[in-house]
Design brief:
61% of the residues lie in helices and 0% in strands. The chain is mainly alpha-helical.
Length: 87
């Protein structure tokens, strides 16, 4: 069972009136408009901190990873896929 939490946000009158007008224009309550706005903001927020991403990229750039010609890699993948067949 999901629990719900109440969030209280204090806005000045002009800001609240503007949000109310926007919510009406979208045919929704102020509460629903705020919930959707928060979901959008949360969705658009990066999953990790940019500094953490840069650290991981810098660490990866310090190493040499095995590579091969793309045709060779695809041949090996296909060869492995069918290796167990016909046995």
């Amino acid at each position: 069972m999901d629990m719900t939490q109440r969030l209280q946000v204090l806005l000045d009158d002009s800001e609240f009136d503007e949000i109310r007008r926007i919510a009406r224009r979208h045919h929704m309550t102020v509460a629903e408009w705020v919930r959707q706005a928060l979901r959008t903001a949360r969705r658009d927020e990066p999953a990790t901190e940019p500094q953490r991403k840069l650290l991981v990229l810098r660490e990866a750039a310090r190493h040499a990873y095995p590579t091969a010609d793309i045709a060779q890699m695809l041949d090996e993948i296909e060869g492995g896929r069918f290796a167990g067949e016909g046995a």
